[in-house]
């Protein structure tokens, strides 16, 4: 452009250095990416802090009632997935996209992202007050999708109290006491995986046939022969926790989440809420998820075998079209104390499903086990002296052994269930 002094710079353009005298060069201003700068959440009306409100599904101010819609769009199961390449990781965005603080628990080692203005002195995972708070790191992998909270915080107390009251072998005071004072809403990290599995199997299969011997008696013989087959499976949204700071047994009981409500990540949903970054890296999570998928493929292959006689079974599985997502899922977490022991309870923030640890009244368990075993033992003891009389004693002993076996199986199942309730 000649005579640049006579021409103003066009709107949204800037001047570039020119290597030709008398010629001016202009170029569009570079587009600014809003997400590259951490956002802050202050009310435009009164300046107070705003937070994501579950009831309205938007960002609200509790002081003046200001409400704004979130910028996340519901995408459901059509949400983008990534292939297992270094390029996809290098192109992924980093940071939360919002100014946040970082909480580190010295007792359990939990790492947590909390709102910048949050005032907290305890860890939501173990209730310890030995915590350090610092600025959240900006080099973490940013989740691309999440499921927003749907269950209102005020409903958690009723859901937990109802759950605590279930089960006859727990202390009676659990349901009637207000053991759980506060739930923390936390977005927990999860990896989801998709894959197609081509599995080939072979095994020796036994086929029964009946033969009659020279005395006319019928017996069963098994003919063994090698057989093979093929199975093709499509694994969709296989979920794997991205944190080892919460019980995976409890998380498993919170499933499923409705991935139809998967929403594009926006810092709006984290305003006023806690979140945890993953500490189980993608390669490790994928290897563990593959083991579960391989077991599913093995079960599918075994189901193709009509006979119950199988030996030398082997399977090879090829994984194709492997993709992943990094998502945040909503969980309410609370800890409570009972007889100086700490127990953990979680609520699925989308469906309201409750799972966790509950103390066991072991005196009830031992009484129940005794009631299950005493009848069988009593019959055996009663039958021993009657062996001298005749077959009556043997009948009582046989019946006693049967009752003892049944009682033992039920007792073992009851004991295991009680242990799992406390361990979870």
Give a verbal description of the structure:
By secondary structure, this protein is an alpha+beta fold. The chain folds into three domains: 4-31, no CATH class; 72-194 and 233-352, no CATH class; 362-423. It contains seven helices and 17 strands. The strands form four sheets. Strands 6, 10, 11, 12, 13, 14, 15, 16 and 17 form a nine-stranded mixed beta sheet that branches. Strands 3-4-5 form a three-stranded antiparallel beta sheet, with no helix packed on it. A three-stranded antiparallel beta sheet has the order 8-7-9, with no helix packed on it. A hairpin with a 5-residue loop joins strand 7 and strand 8. Helix 6 runs antiparallel to helix 7. It is flat and about 125 Å long. The termini are far apart.
Layout of helices and strands:
Blueprint lengths: L12 E4 L8 E4 L21 E4 L4 E4 L5 E3 L12 E2 L2 H6 L8 E6 L5 E5 L15 E5 L9 E2 L9 H9 L8 H4 L7 E29 L5 E24 L6 H7 L8 E2 L9 E2 L6 H22 L5 E30 L2 E8 L5 E3 L5 H25 L4 H33 L1
Helix pairs in contact: 6-7
> Into which percent range does the helicity of residues fall?
25-40%
Shape: flat
Separate helix tally: 7
Give the total of beta strands. 17
User: Beta-sheet strand percentage?
Assistant: 25-35%
The overall pLDDT average reads 84
Distance between the termini: 74 Å
Largest sheet: 9 strands, mixed
Q: What is the N-to-C succession of helices and strands? A: EEEEEEHEEEEHHEEHEEHEEEHH
Derived from helix and strand composition plus strand pairing, the structural class reads: alpha+beta
- Rg, rounded, reads 32 Å
**How many domain modules?**
3
Unreliable residue runs: 32-37
